[in-house]
Amino acid sequence: MFELNSNEGYFLHLIKTELKNEQPEEKPSEVEWNKVFEIGLRQNAANLAWFSIEKLNNPPEGELFNQWQEVYAKAASKCLKQMMETDLLSEAFTSKSYDIMFLKGSKIREYYPSPDMRTMTDIDLLVKAEDREPVRELMRSLGYEDDLLNDGQVDAFKKLPVIYVEVHYDFSAENHIYHEMFSIDWDKLVKTDKDHIYEMTFEDLYFFNVGHYAKNMHNRGMGIRAILDCFVLWNAANDEQKENILKKFESTELKEFNNNLLKIADIWFNDTDDDGSLDNVQSYLLKTKTYGSYKNEIVLGAARNINSDSKLKYVFSKVFPSAEYLYKRFNVKQQPLLLPILWLLRIILLIFSKKEKKEHVRNQYNTFEQISAEDIDYEIHVRREFGLKGN
Predict the structure, then answer these.
(1) Helix H or strand E segment including 166
(2) Which residue has the higher pLDDT, 102 or 329?
(3) How confident is the model at residue 78 (pLDDT cuts 50, 70, 90)?
(4) Could you tell me whether strands 100-103 and 197-199 are parallel, antiparallel, or unpaired per DSSP bridges?
(5) 24-42 burial by CB neighbour count: b if 16+ within 10 A, else e?
(6) Are 256 and 382 in contact (CB under 8 A)?
(7) Distance (Å, rounded) from C-alpha 269 to C-alpha 16?
(8) SS3 of 148, please?
(9) Contact (CB, 8 A) for 197 and 98
(10) pTM of the predicted structure, to 2 decimals
(11) Phi/psi at 275 (5° precision)
(12) DSSP 3-state assignment of 165?
């Protein structure tokens, strides 16, 4: 779909040649360096493209060259700091005998040719639910500030300027569309050679992360990272592991979604013929940001509530969310008599929230006003094409 002489095609070429340790071709005259750079920034993959750019005889010149090099340097520095912090967290948690497992990017980046090729917003780790309160105190003792507590199954902490940690107590929240399929059983994890540190089997690492990508598409959309990760992990798997992975998906509703992830990876990075059946998905992935967007989130919300397309109903649903949401938001047992109090508390918290939070709510409202039936139809169509029938 994306020819080498297009901005998107050349960006994918730079990514492909580095992942496969090949010499990249020089930039075609039709390609604009600044457009390729913009794609890389949007996808949090400009640093990965930089590895190939360094091999070119005619790389971008002047200020753009310096900007691109700076993006790579910052990504590499952040990667190193995150890896050092991961070691610190491992030591701190295991010294207190807390069982832990690192999730998502922390493990996936190990399979890239170099870990700094794979950017990571935060460090994700799993801890047993019964350790939640003492773990909070431990994180504070390590210099972390609370950022968001009781957000479903996650507590989030920050250590400025670049370290952000999400402590999970399950892989997904109970309201996750695929929660039952992707709930972690500690008894099925693999013990490592370090006491109290666990990991998934390779097959489960792949399987669970496809579930994470499906959740992202369900909630807000996503960019090309899922394709990159699937390509890297699939290439690292042996034949038996590949067979086991496909068996895990065989009886699930995500079978087609996984097959299409791998199909796009083959088209982009293995030069497999493109039959055009995933054109909309491919275009969507390259145009959308790594973690989707607020607009996508609002459009998807409208798509799931076709009968609630008025501004009044939308605002009402935001001010007075479901009882299930409120019970989880405030971490209280289900008691219907509490609902009016919880709704009132939510409104009070919004009134006294930070300026950024209020601005976010206003932006959501304004965005909702602007979305059209065509926007909704497009989001639904892309997900159907991708194989996400439940969306």
Answers:
(1) strand 163-168
(2) 102
(3) very high
(4) parallel
(5) beebeeebebeebbebbbb
(6) no
(7) 5
(8) strand
(9) no
(10) 0.86
(11) -85, 0
(12) strand
